[in-house]
């Protein structure tokens, strides 16, 4: 029997656990997909590919700072999918995925973590970061993941920004080194068909995703999208997902300290756990599973039936066991 991880109160549902560029992207209302990836469907959004063809380039997964020092984040509006992960000090960092469109620049690029292996590997794409601990880079290399970092084409510094929040990616230049790499071969999520009814569930118009005492991501449902309450992006460059997917995940000590002496956590993104899908102003309880770091995510509702995600830009929250989610 599945243990429910939400407790209903009068007002809320509580989840607790102990330059120029191609920025075009179809709108979710035109989406079409299936649990396999037809050639005309974008693997990171489930939406129809422009001109009926998936872009013949790999996904770029860019590590982006998610603290107040990141303001303004640039390039997120062109993303297909964003994953928010726990890092040291109880803060979070973003893994921002680009495939259907490329912005002129992505800023500020930050360092990589071993958590990123399970995030990036299913795309078969390229991980972009400002560097990383030697053991992290060795693990990423051993996983067979291509990397772009400082010193590589497409990475520069914006001298008007404060170090280390001034690393800039030019996605078009960076991809020039990976000609011949394929587009993602499988859907990143189990996308629903365009004519599928929206999943049923309880009303959900706000969400407070607590990663630690130091960080909570707050969301508001408005006009068909989820909006971050304290968005760090430049005005007009916000990522506005149609879906929020909240996964309860295990974390462990990565085995090293950051330069400030803080233990670095690692999210274990394989196995299974509890999930919430927030879409169309509703929330659906479910379970996630991932057979291996390289495998795509699978979702089921609490009856065991397959749970599919409406096509569109999606934000995934990897909430640690000590975190919680409050939904109103």
Question: Could you walk me through the main structural features you see in this protein, from its secondary elements to its overall organization?
Answer:
Strand 17 and strand 18 (about 300) form a beta hairpin. This protein starts with 5 loop residues before the first strand and ends with a strand. By secondary structure, it is mainly beta. The strands form three sheets. Strands 3, 4, 5, 6, 7, 10, 14, 15, 16, 17, 18 and 19 form a twelve-stranded mixed beta sheet that branches. Strands 1-2-20-11-12-13 form a six-stranded antiparallel beta sheet, with no helix packed on it. The model is unreliable at about 1-20 and about 25-40 (pLDDT under 50). The chain has helices at about 115-120, 135-140, 170-175; strands at about 5-10, 15, 60-65, 80-85, 90-100, 125-130, 145-150, 155, 165-170, 200-205, 205-210, 215-220, 225-230, 245-255, 265-270, 270-280, 280-290, 300, 315-320, 325. The protein has two domains: about 5-20 and about 190-255 and about 260-325, YerB-like fold (3-Layer(bba) Sandwich); about 50-180, YerB-like fold, CATH 3.50.90.10. It has three helices and 20 strands.
